[in-house]
Amino acid sequence: MPRRDDLESILLIGSGPIVIGQACEFDYSGTQAAKVLRRHGYRVILVNSNPATIMTDPEFADATYIEPITEEVVEAIIAKERPDALLATLGGQTALNVATGLARSGVLERYGVEMIGAGLDAIERAEDRGLFKRVMEEAGLAVPRAGYARSMHEALRIVEEIGFPAMIRPSFILGGSGTGIAVDREEFLEKARHGLATSPVGEILVEESVSGWKEFELEVMRDGRDNAVIVCSIENLDPMGVHTGDSITVAPIQTLSDREYQEMRNDAIRVLQIIGVETGGSNVQFAVDPKTGRRLVIEMNPRVSRSSALASKATGFPIAKIAALLAVGFSLDEIPNDITGATPASFEPTLDYVVVKIPRFDFDKFPSAPTQLGTSMRSVGEAMAIGRTFGEALQKAVRSLENGRAGFGADRIEHSLAATGMDDLMASLVTPTPARLHAVAEVLRRGAGVNEVAARTGFDPWFVEEMAEIVATRRRIEKSPKDVEAIRLAKRHGFSDSQLGYLWNLPEEEVRSIRLSAGVTTTFKTVDTCAAEFEAQTPYMYGAFEEEDEVPPATRPRVMVLGSGPNRIGQGIEFDYCCVHASFALREAGFETVMVNCNPETVSTDYDTADRLYFEPLTVEDVLAVVEAERPESVIVQLGGQTPLNLARRLQQAGVRIAGTSPDSIDLAEDREQFSEVCRRLGIKQPPHGIAKDRIAATEIVDQVGLPVVVRPSYVLGGRKMRVIYTYDELSEYLDGLYGDVGEAELTDVPLLIDRFLESATEVDVDALFDGVELLVGGVMEHVEEAGVHSGDSACVVPPPTLSETAHKTILAHTADLARELGVLGLINIQFAVKGDEVFVLEANPRASRTIPFISKASGIPMAKLAARVMMGERLETLRTEGLLKDRSSPGFTAVKEAVMPWNRFPEQDSVLGPEMRATGEVMGIGADTGVAYAKALLAAGHKLPTEGTVFLSLADRDKAMGLAVAQAFQMLGFSLIATKGTARFLAHHAIAAEVVNKVGEGPDDTRERIEGGQVQLIVNTPRGGRARSDGQVIRHAARARGVPCVTTIQGALSVARSLRSGDGMVVAPRSLQDWHGEA
Amino acid sequence: MSQALLVTADGAVFRGMSVGAEGMTTGEAVFNTSMTGYQEVITDPSYTGQVVVMTSPHIGNYGVSPDDDQSEAPAVSGFVMRSISRRHSNWRSHGSFTDFLQEHGVVALSEIDTRRLTRHIRDAGAQPVAMGAGVSERELTEAAAAAPRMEGRDLASGAGTSTMFVAPTDRTPRAHVVAVDLGMKRDIVRQLNRRGFTVTVVPAATTAPEILSMEPDGVFLSNGPGDPEPLLNTVNTTGDLLGEVPIFGICLGHQVLGLALGARTYKLPFGHHGGNHPVRRLSDGGIQITSQNHGFAVDLWPLAGGSAPARDGLVGRELLPDSIDTRVGRVVPTHQNLNDGTLEGLRCLDVPAFGVQYHPEAAPGPTDAVGLFDEFATLMGVTDAQA
Ligand SMILES: Nc1ncnc2c1ncn2[C@@H]1O[C@H](COP(=O)(O)OP(=O)(O)O)[C@@H](O)[C@H]1O
Ligand SMILES: Nc1ncnc2c1ncn2[C@@H]1O[C@H](COP(=O)(O)OP(=O)(O)O)[C@@H](O)[C@H]1O
Ligand SMILES: [Mg+2]
Ligand SMILES: [Mg+2]
Question: A976-979 and A995-996 as β-strands: parallel, antiparallel, unpaired?
Answer without folding.
Answer: parallel
